[in-house]
Sequence to fold (313 residues):
Amino acid sequence: MKKPSNNIYADINELSRLQYHARGFSFSPNQPVNSVLSGKNVSRLRGRGLNFEELRHYRPGDDIRSMDWKVTRRTGKPHIKVYTEERERNVYLIINQASSMFFGSTGKMKSVIAAEVSSLIAWQITQSGDRIGGIIFNDDDVKVVPAKRGKQHVLNFLTEIVKKNHQLKVGNEQGDNSKTPEGFSINDSLKKVSQIAGHDALIIIIGDGNGWNKTSNDYLKKLRQHNEIIAVHIYDQLEMELPKMTNMIVSDGNYQIQFSSEKQATQEKYQALAQAQLTNYAQSAKRYRIPMITLNTLEPTEQQLRSQLGKVY
Fold:
């Protein structure tokens, strides 16, 4: 049996090897000035959360911003709250492996890019000492992976991504999607991560923005109040601009149509629909000060990630 191309389906061995390329970028609060995560572009990353340790008397040199004014008024003596930084932070990836991601015109499928960037992030997060977990969804199912540390945990996590990735097929072989309302999967994933993330987690949404709607915005707003969020948008150039062909044939695996894409009206309608979906997703990110990393399906994933995060060495 012929092995499927790594451009079409993710391969666990390739994802494992990406641990050696998970360098040159980070998700720490201190970002290079040209990183999309830098403070000049978006709200700064909070980094790990803080744990309350003790309440004690004020000492010369203590930060006045740590003063507990209620206790100070009640006792008549200045008191401060002492916090210690959490040793570990929970990082959750929301990974789209739905049918809209099973597309790639020239290079790799968007679903493969999503698996690769998830792998790079997971290895980097583990190397930094934080816990990594996530939610992987397709048109029919959502898989929750608890946040843990360790190389074996990352390999188990990547194996779950590959399982979902290999369920992708042309047409409706995945299941009857007619019963699934548009946006159900992403919204169900956002709901689940809001239940497990708690406070001070880093949540990274990886996908193409397909199915994003008002309900998604509501979940995003709630999550953003207590957590840091990053969006990774994956696109294929063909989605942005329809090639001009006299006889273009398009198929979903079950049906096909033939038409001319040279007509100006067809081009304009296609671009308007594509832009509307992207604009909706991008505007949501901008509204809640969420940085967006944009990756295409042609260039090496690790190079794109390092370029957008400022090549931290």
About this structure: The CA atoms of residues 244 and 262 lie 5 Å apart. DSSP finds nine helices and ten strands in the chain.
